[in-house]
Amino acid sequence: MTIAPGRRARSTEAKAARREAILDAARRLYEAAPTIEAVGIEEVARAAGVAKGTVYLYAPSKEALFLALYERTTLAWLNRLEARLAAKSAADPARAGYAADAARAAAAAVVGACTDVPLMARLNAALHGSLEPRLDADALYAVKIGMIERLNGIARDLGRVLGLPAREAAEVVPGLFVCMIGCHHVAMPPPNLAGLYERPEMAPYRLDFSRLMGNSLRDMFLGRLAARPEEPA
């Protein structure tokens, strides 16, 4: 459903459509901007075809707007991660060499979900960097609490692929975000600096995000599996 610019959204469906249009505008601007700080509410309103005051009806601040974009992006990523993990075979710890295959499969699922939702890594890096200190605590709490069940589901799915009980896999889940944020920081320069890293002499600093993250996750998973106590004979 689309809403004509300048018309006020009144129905629940119309309000949801306008909110999505505003978030889409914020996403497009952020994808081309060096930082969240470089994106203004007035620019978002113009890109969405609404008045500046309309944006504030849906988000009381720029920080709240980007928190909503973070939430939408993360939920989309979780959907893709669930689907990719579901497509992987369950690990068979009784099979010799299973750990290497399981670690590769789990890492591929996580990296694939990041490829499916390209903004995920950048927004998470921003949330835990410049954005979070300026957020309303109650708003951040609501978003984080709302994701707990989804993350518990990811732990169960990840455990199936790795051959770990869900409670042990849950201890690994924070590492997904650590790897994602760290690899983003070193392998994905902001758009305004991308050209710098294309210079021939900058080749040592050009890193492939997917490869770097995949290797980091694989090694993390292998380390976790190797640390498990052996089952008694």
Give a concise summary:
This protein has 233 residues and is mainly alpha-helical. It is built from 10 helices and no strands. It is globular and about 60 Å long.
List SSEs in N-to-C order. Answer: HHHHHHHHHH
Mean pLDDT: 93
Sheet with the most strands?
Answer: none
Distance between the termini: 61 Å
Percentage of residues in helical conformation: 55-70%
Radius of gyration, CA atoms, in whole angstroms: 20 Å
How many discrete domains? 2
Tell me the strand percentage band.
Answer: under 5%
Query: What's the overall geometry?
Result: globular
CATH fold call of the largest domain? Tetracycline Repressor, domain 2
**Which class do the helix and strand fractions yield?**
mainly alpha
Question: What is the correct CATH architecture of the largest domain?
Answer: Orthogonal Bundle
Question: DSSP helix count?
Answer: 10
The CATH superfamily of the largest domain bears the name: Tetracycline Repressor, domain 2
Q: CATH top level of the largest domain? A: Mainly Alpha
The beta-strand count equals 0
| Low-pLDDT residue spans | none
